[in-house]
Write a structure and sequence with these properties.
The complex is a heterodimer.
Chain A lengths: L2 E10 L8 H11 L11 E5 L11 H4 L3 E4 L2 E4 L20 H4 L3 E3 L3 H4 L11 E3 L36 H8 L7 E5 L8 H5 L5 E4 L5 E3 L9 H5 L5 E4 L4 E4 L4 H4 L6 H5 L5 E9 L3 H5 L6 H8 E2 L4 H9 L4 H8 L2 H8 L16 E4 L8 E3 L2 E3 L4 H10 L4 H8 L4 H22 L5 H10 L4 H12 L3 H4 L37
Parallel strand pairs in A: 1-14
Antiparallel strand pairs in A: 1-12, 2-7, 3-4, 5-6, 8-9, 10-11, 12-13, 15-16
Chain B lengths: L1 H27 L15 H26 L1 H7 L3 H31 L1 H5 L3 H23 L3 H17 L13 H16 L23 E2 L7
Helix pairs in contact in B: 1-8, 2-3, 2-4, 2-7, 3-7, 4-6, 6-8
Classes of the chains: A alpha+beta, B mainly alpha.
């Protein structure tokens, strides 16, 4: 047993309104620079949709993540023996066209334009070439376009659906959509780290944040292809790869990352997960059907004495263990089974989990009066009548397996009915309780889920462990080493080349 | 005098600068070490240019290195005409691949709008020198046969005399001027290594073969 601590996340999709505040907060802090201007470390996608970069989930093309080959876990991109073959040209790497060409507007024309009959306009210009650009795509070009034949139709997750189901998703009367905010998953088994030829990408032992060492990165770009979520980006100006750093300067000082802090829907949770690093490889070799369970089995119970002993042996402090016991992420993922990792079949074991969107409450209406469920089956009937087929969500969150998604959705549906029986009173309480039992949920658990979902405070959503910077390696070095210098680490203009 | 300057002084200066500046740059400006790939901005022309150039030049360069280290082996191999033709044809065709590649890369630099943005003056200098290096090599291979043999009898001893610090430029001074410029632009390429994106070949990631797939760094205790 090799217990490690990971700062992990839950995004509650039922609460996401798709406002992109998270994306803008991140953009303003980190990527508002030349070469990084096209990057959205945090982006929000409309699902069904093609996403950013377009069709990132299509691993036949992009070759991201891991595959089981000859009983071994191997990068889909390349094997160790063959990896030099692709060094001169990376065949599966997306180019700027798959993201979008960043642009701005020539605002000064509004002030300096000559006197004429028409109002002056600020024309769009490319942030790469500086020339006029005919804008054809952007980072959220599929925004709210559920049902679009261009975007929704080409969602890779529609694969398992019947033609009839697909047509339903495109028809104006039955179309459906929800939002999927995405950041780097800070995986337990990151493919980007394993693919980096220079060994520049690493996972921090203390909190599991995955970072690119800008001094070591040589711009070979294997990480961009290997990350199945396309969350490592190539800075075209500096020739280095960059990625979401989970706002580690904020996390180290006990603050939530910018995208978490700014989330207006309060959909984001952050907390510690303990996991057993020794089990990762065996878990990665499991079949698709067992992956969700295998991933949950990696996560260790912070109340288990054996786990605690191993954690202490690895230098995980009491404070971090305390944070792990209060972790909202552990509750959502492990105790309640509500939160699911995106695309577990990529076998990177993300540390970001999603509570799937239940969608609007469905009613049967007769003569203008809403009919409430009269049997347990009726409570759960909307799951199968939903516009969004369960098979779609299963492709997104269950490696094609409906069972884990259905379990989570059923529980939420049962809690909703039970809460309605409690607060509105037009549903029979005995029926609501039977519903909870059928969804593997007790009233106490239902109340806890309700509270953490709807009434959660800032401190309950973000249980950020202390970073113990007082124990960091810096204190063992000469404290006067950087005295009089510009700051910590290195400071250098992000200039291209020499 | 001129010969001494060009074929004794210049190579030493180029080599010394290449070594010293590369090390200094690696130590003090590690951020500037990058392949500076522009594939993200343009991929199709790069596929042809980069693949042909790199594979071609790798073989040509290995040939030069082989003849430098084992000149007798080359001479022994070339003792039979058939084997000589085989070697020359292979070398020439690899050089032609490299030529097509570098020309494609130059055209790409000038035609693609986005690539133009990330093109520095030194990039153009480097491409020009490389183009000259490859074309002069091809010209020499075609006009003054057989290059592989006289490389072993003239170039290798000259280069070894430089290595041994007892330079004997007289090995190559009688050679035609085209051959001599091939030497000079070769030394120029070495000189350009530390100042251009050429540094990327100094950091070819061979350690990938034996490193563990996952990298975990502990800030506390400095443990890995």
């Amino acid at each position: 047993m090799d217990i490690r601590s990971q700062v992990a996340m839950v995004f509650h999709l039922d609460k996401c309104i798709g406002c992109h505040t998270c994306s803008v907060a991140c953009k303003n802090v980190w990527t508002d620079r030349k070469g990084a201007d096209y990057m959205w470390w945090n982006n929000v996608e409309t699902k069904p949709g093609t996403g950013y970069p377009t069709q990132w989930e299509n691993q036949q093309e992009y070759k991201g993540g891991w595959v089981v080959k000859d009983g071994k876990l191997q990068l889909r991109l390349t094997s160790k023996g063959k990896f030099l073959q692709k060094i001169f040209h990376q065949p599966s790497m997306p180019t700027m066209d798959e993201y979008y060409e960043p642009w701005t507007y020539r605002y000064e024309d509004l002030f300096t334009g000559p006197e004429q009959d028409d109002q002056p306009t600020a024309i769009p210009i490319s942030k790469v070439t500086g020339e006029y650009i005919d804008i054809e795509s952007g980072p959220n070009w599929d925004d709210d376009l559920g049902g679009s034949t261009l975007y929704a139709r080409n969602d890779v997750n529609l694969e398992a659906l019947t033609e009839e189901q697909r047509l339903q998703l495109l028809s104006i009367e039955t179309l459906v959509m929800f939002y999927l905010p995405r950041i780097c998953n800070h995986c337990a088994n990151p493919a980007c780290v394993a693919a980096c030829p220079s060994g520049a990408i690493y996972k921090r032992g203390e909190d599991g944040i995955v970072l690119v060492n800008q001094n070591v990165c040589k711009g070979w770009r294997y990480c961009v292809s290997a990350c199945p979520y396309k969350k490592v980006f190539y800075n075209w100006s500096t020739g280095k790869s960059e990625k979401c750093l989970l706002c580690y300067p904020r996390v180290e000082t006990g603050q939530a990352p910018a995208c978490f802090h700014s989330c207006v829907g309060r959909i984001r949770y952050m907390g510690v997960l303990l996991y057993d690093a020794d089990k990762i490889e065996a878990a990665g070799l499991k079949s698709d059907a067992e992956l969700v369970t295998a991933h949950r089995d990696l996560l260790a119970d912070p109340n288990n004495p054996t786990v605690v002993a191993s954690a202490i042996k690895n230098g995980i402090s009491d404070q971090v263990l305390k944070a792990a016991r209060n972790s909202p992420v552990y509750q959502f993922v492990k105790e309640w089974g509500l939160a699911l990792a995106p695309h577990p079949e990529y076998r990177t074991f993300p540390s970001l989990f999603y509570v799937p969107a239940l969608g609007p409450v469905t009613y049967s209406v007769e003569d203008g009066v809403a009919l409430n469920p009269t049997s347990v089956d009726e409570i759960f009937a909307p799951l199968d009548q939903a516009r969004l087929p369960m098979a779609y969500l299963a492709n997104l969150f269950g490696a094609g397996q409906e069972a884990p998604v259905r379990y989570a959705m059923k529980k939420m549906m049962a809690i909703r009915t039970w809460k309605r029986a409690q607060t509105v009173g037009d549903v029979d309480m005995t029926l609501a309780l039977a519903g909870l039992r059928a969804a593997d949920c007790t009233p106490e658990q239902a109340e806890a889920i309700y509270r953490l979902t709807s009434l959660c405070t800032f401190e309950q959503r973000f249980v950020i462990p202390p970073s113990h910077r007082e124990q960091a390696v810096e204190v063992l070095t000469n404290p006067l080493e950087r005295k009089g210098a510009a700051g910590f680490g290195f400071r250098e203009e992000p200039q291209r080349g020499f | 005098m001129l010969n001494n300057f060009l074929f004794v002084g210049f190579p030493y200066v180029a080599l010394a600068l290449a070594i010293v500046v590369s090390i200094l740059r690696f130590t003090w400006r590690p951020f500037s070490y990058s392949s500076l790939s522009s594939q993200f901005l343009e991929t199709e022309a790069l596929f042809w240019g980069s693949s042909l150039w790199h594979w071609g030049i790798l073989w040509v360069l290995s040939g030069h290195l082989f003849a430098f280290f084992l000149p007798e082996a080359i001479l022994a191999w070339n003792a039979r005409p058939l084997r000589l033709y085989l070697l020359e044809i292979t070398g020439l065709s690899m050089a032609l691949l490299a030529l097509v590649g570098v020309v494609a890369l130059i055209i790409r630099r000038f035609t693609d709008k986005r690539v133009k943005v990330v093109t520095s003056p030194l990039d153009l200098v480097l491409l020009t020198v490389l183009l000259y290096q490859v074309s002069s090599g091809i010209d020499v291979a075609i006009r003054y046969r057989w290059g592989s043999s006289w490389f072993s009898t003239n170039a290798a001893p000259y280069l070894w005399s430089l290595v041994k610090c007892s330079p004997r430029p007289e090995f190559i001074t009688p050679l035609p001027w085209m051959v001599k410029t091939h030497f000079l632009s070769g030394f120029l390429v070495i000189l350009l290594i530390p100042f251009t994106r050429l540094v990327h070949f100094l950091v070819v990631p061979i350690h990938y073969f034996w490193r563990r797939p996952q990298v975990v760094i502990w800030n506390r205790r400095g443990r890995r």
